[in-house]
């Protein structure tokens, strides 16, 4: 009798857990956003849960790779380009036979327009093909492991001499460019510290055709997020190095096109520049 009861309870247990796991598998996938309105130069946090496979995600005609999180959901930090037109858009997610679309709004960040009339000397200093291609490729790194967890720290502390997103018009033409980072004015030789853990993707040298960027470091923080440091005086890391938060990667300088010692610090999502201070203000 005892043996029968034991068998029966095992059978009951199997049936129940079977039912439960079926129920979990039947959970409908869902797309959630941190908010449905963002300013230019910011980003949406898009999360999809309840799918068995990696979902596809689109915003403004662009496909974004989603990355698996510890809780089993998939996430993408979707950048809103600084020059994207304010108005109505949508974020669309798809997996198997499920799809979901959420309408979103992009609002102007009202950054001022800087009118630039280049002199002949500066005009002749154009980024070389080498620096352009290597920087672009480094900033588009997509690696699946999330290397950062906390809020970012500033790579060096000092006066912010130019904010992110200031729009630029050259020779009276419509706005075609903008400041893709923040400038911190500090003396030459000030240590530059990695604001978060990551892996060094690129070290570029002025002596090796980095004429505009000057001595450059790019760090990959994982899951589509990279950061860049320009005009460095010296570089103390090499490509492939793993760096911790607060680890020195070089010193502030004025190499490349620069009017004086300062650090240009930029952060990128999927190769698109977003305001680096967002990562200092909040944890993502
Ligand atoms: Zn700058």
Number of domains: 2
SSE pattern, N- to C-terminal? HEEEEEEEEEEHHEEEEEEEEEEEEH
What binds here, in terms of ligands, is: zinc ion
Q: Specify the overall morphology.
A: globular
Q: Based on the structure given, which CATH architecture of the largest domain is correct?
A: Distorted Sandwich
Largest sheet: 10 strands, antiparallel
Number of E-state strands: 22
Indicate the structural class: alpha+beta
Mean pLDDT: 91
Radius of gyration, taken over Cα atoms and rounded to an integer in Å: 24 Å
Residue stretches low in confidence (pLDDT < 50, at least 5 long) are 17-24
- CATH fold-type name of the largest domain: Glucose Permease (Domain IIA)
Query: Which CATH first-tier class of the largest domain would you pick?
Result: Mainly Beta
Spatial separation of the terminal alpha carbons: 57 Å
What is the beta-strand fraction?
35-45%
What portion of residues is helical? 10-25%
Write structural notes for this entry.
The protein is of the alpha+beta class and 284 residues long. It has two domains: 25-107, Macroglobulin (MG2) domain (Immunoglobulin-like, Sandwich); 123-160 and 183-281, Glucose Permease (Domain IIA) (Distorted Sandwich), CATH 2.70.70. 15% of the residues lie in helices and 40% in strands. It is built from four helices and 22 strands. The strands form four sheets. Strands 11, 14, 15, 16, 17, 18, 19, 20, 21 and 22 form a ten-stranded antiparallel sheet that branches. Strand 12 (167-170) and strand 13 (177-178) form a beta hairpin. The longest helix is centred in the first third of the chain and has 24 residues, at 2-25. It is globular, with a radius of gyration of 24 Å. The protein starts with a helix and ends with a helix. Residues 162, 179, 181, 183, 264 line the site of zinc ion.
């Amino acid at each position: 009798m005892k043996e029968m009861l034991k068998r029966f309870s095992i059978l009951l247990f199997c049936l129940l857990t079977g039912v439960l796991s079926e129920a979990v598998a039947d959970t409908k996938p869902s797309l959630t956003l941190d908010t449905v309105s963002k300013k230019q130069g910011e980003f949406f946090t898009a999360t999809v849960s309840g799918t068995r496979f990696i979902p596809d995600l689109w915003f403004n005609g662009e496909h974004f790779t989603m990355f698996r999180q510890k809780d089993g959901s998939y996430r993408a930090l979707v950048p809103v380009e600084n020059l994207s037109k304010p108005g109505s858009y949508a974020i669309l997610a798809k997996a198997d036979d499920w799809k979901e679309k959420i309408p979103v709004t992009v609002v102007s960040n009202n950054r001022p327009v800087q009118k630039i009339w280049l002199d002949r000397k500066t005009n002749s200093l154009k980024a070389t093909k080498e620096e352009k291609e290597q920087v672009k490729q480094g900033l588009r790194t997509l690696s699946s492991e999330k290397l950062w967890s906390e809020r970012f720290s500033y790579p060096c502390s000092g006066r912010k001499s130019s904010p992110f997103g200031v729009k630029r018009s050259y020779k009276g033409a419509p706005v075609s460019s903008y400041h893709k980072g923040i400038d911190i004015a500090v003396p030459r030789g000030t240590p530059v510290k990695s604001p978060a853990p990551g892996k060094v993707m690129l070290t570029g040298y002025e002596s090796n055709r980095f004429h505009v960027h000057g001595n450059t470091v790019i760090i990959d923080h994982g899951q589509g997020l990279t950061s860049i440091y320009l005009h460095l005086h010296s570089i103390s890391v090499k490509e492939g190095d793993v760096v911790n938060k607060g680890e020195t990667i070089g010193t502030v300088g004025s190499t490349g096109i620069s009017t004086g010692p300062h650090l240009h610090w930029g952060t990128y999502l999927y190769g698109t520049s977003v305001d680096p201070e967002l990562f200092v203000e909040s944890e993502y």
